[in-house]
Specification:
With 490 residues, the chain is α/β, with parallel strands linked by helices. It is built from 19 helices and 19 strands. β10 and β11 form a beta hairpin. Belongs to the carotenoid/retinoid oxidoreductase family.
Length: 490
Amino acid sequence: MAVVIGAGVGGLAVAARLAAAGHRVDVVERAATHGGKLGAFSRDGFTFDTGPSLLTLPQVFRDLFTDTGADLDTALDLRRVDPACHYRFADGTTLDVPHDADAVPGALDAALGPPAGEQWAALMAGAARLWDLVGEPVLRNPLGGVTDLVKRATNLRDLAAIAPWRTLHGLGRGLDDLRLRQFLDRYATYSGSDPRKLPAVMSVVPYVEQRFGAWHPAGGMRRLADALLQRCTDLGVRFHFGTEVVAVETDAAGVVGVRLADGERVADRTVVSDADAGNLYGHLVRDRRARGPLRALRSVRPSLAGFVLLLALRGRTEDPRHHRVLFPDDYDDEFRSIFGKHPRPVPDPTAYVCSPGDPGSAPPGCEGWFVLVNAPRHEPGSGVDWDRPGLADEYADLVLATLARRGLDVRDRLRWREVRTPADWERDTASPGGSIYGSSSNGPRAALLRPANRSPVPGLHLVGGSAHPGGGLPIVTLSAEITARLIGPA
């Protein structure tokens, strides 16, 4: 038997793998439903995904379904997103990034002018080498510390290529065009991080997106969570929604089970946590063997948070795009605002607009937009208090005005809006301050040496965005693969 804390994507994936390996699995989830940050919202005939807008590395999910006795393509209709994303820069330049990696340099030259394409192709060639070094070999295997990472590099040349002291922003200084540098820096936000602190090795993120393509399930990203839930149910996993774990209990030999908010105890020698690692080690586990990971976590910052508008719009947008990114004049100020000593809502934020146009996602003649801007976490007293009266509506108005300045004025089409602040995400998902991606990757240790999947407390394991190998849908799914392999068959 195994107990899984949390029914996010990592929790669902590890539950499926453990059940397929013969374990009797119980998943305990404090929320009323499954999926964690991969959520959905419906109102008046509009349905919005409230989490990720694209799926990368689809093979990771095919492997999960195959390994547990099913076929992903039967459970989910994955479709190419082409162009993968539409970008608008502050000077009005636009760029459509093709689904096909080989076509990206030509698109960059057409939008930004030579030598943008040649420089990007050279950068991606280096990223391909990094992917060989620290991509799948690290992402699919446990990593216990610096020594394990060094072992992955077979010679000094490999270590120099990894260059943990170099940042993504620093790597971008080799690109001539400011717009191309912004395009590169944007990939830091895939892990909720600051490009000025994110190790340059994370240039593998755009490489992966372009090499393996951008995808979207027909019917919305929430369908992925539903498919994972069904896979677990078919394998006999039992779910307990609206049930909060308040403690992981231990004895001298290790884990003995979990204690629930109502006082009930669930006894088991195998516990997997899909909760934030800081919450696990800081609040749920009271065991001296957990002190080491807790000390290490004190030097790691949670990822940035998100401020979201769900917009119900009359009419249809001309020249629609699945995913748009609208850059500000001063992109660096976004990261100064969020990660600086005195965090503040970004005064001129980058706007991310997702409108996949799935049939049935809006009433006839209408469309729904998911609009995200990066935001500082909810930290009353020391940072931004997103519950301050009036702040959410004021900032929502600012975001709509920002869209209008960048050529997407939808204020006269607006039927209604729903606002989700970092404080709302914290309450809904139990993520510290509403951090979207678990821990940030600001610095080599945070990026490459997250809390291990096997805890120092025997029988306690971790999955999810705050554990190795990191955040993002395919990556947390790989954390489940690692953890299930560590636990082994029943």
